[in-house]
Amino acid sequence: MRNEFDFAPFYRSSIGFDRVLNLLNNPQRLQAIDTWPPYDIVKSGENDYRIQMAVAGFAGSDLDVTQERNVLVVRGQKNEEKQGDYLHRGIAGRSFERRFELADHVRVDNASLTNGLLTIDLKREIPEEMKPRKIAIASAEGSQAPMQMIEGEKNVA
């Protein structure tokens, strides 16, 4: 049984959300979920996020963190050196690739590896032109109402 949602009503009443609705509508996103390596996503502030991945056994040179537009890709490729015959192998050391979809205006601020824990700090920075601003409404006579500021000081002459 397939659960498929029709997003057509949302297309009629929203502007600029095409990318989000396409992500939800994309059948490729329903791939088999790999649970390794385990990770946490933490909201550490109003515009700050942190991804923590348990990558025990990987060195910094074995890991690659790249941001491609709105996707953060973390890859791990470990160079195996055979040091004998294993009787039991419980520490995972296989290669991996983990992708995280990022919202618009989210950038990678920092990445660090400490005690087998890869920490990636993310920051959302909304450009000044996208912040809320008050729009003046002109009257019917054609005279324009004075512009009002939301934040900051008004220049008084």
Automatic annotation (TrEMBL):
Instruction: State the UniProt keywords alphabetically.
Output: Stress response
- Show the PROSITE patterns listed in the entry: SHSP
Domain SHSP intervals: 30-140
What top-level branch of life does the organism fall under? Bacteria
On whether Cell inner membrane is a keyword of this UniProt record, the answer is no
Pfam families found in the cross-reference section:
HSP20
InterPro entries in the record, alphabetically? A-crystallin/Hsp20_dom, ACD_IbpA/B, HSP20-like_chaperone
Q: Say if the entry is tagged with keyword Iron.
A: no
Name the PANTHER family on file. PTHR47062, SMALL HEAT SHOCK PROTEIN IBPA
Q: Which family does it belong to?
A: Belongs to the small heat shock protein (HSP20) family.
What name has this protein been given in UniProt? Hsp20 family protein
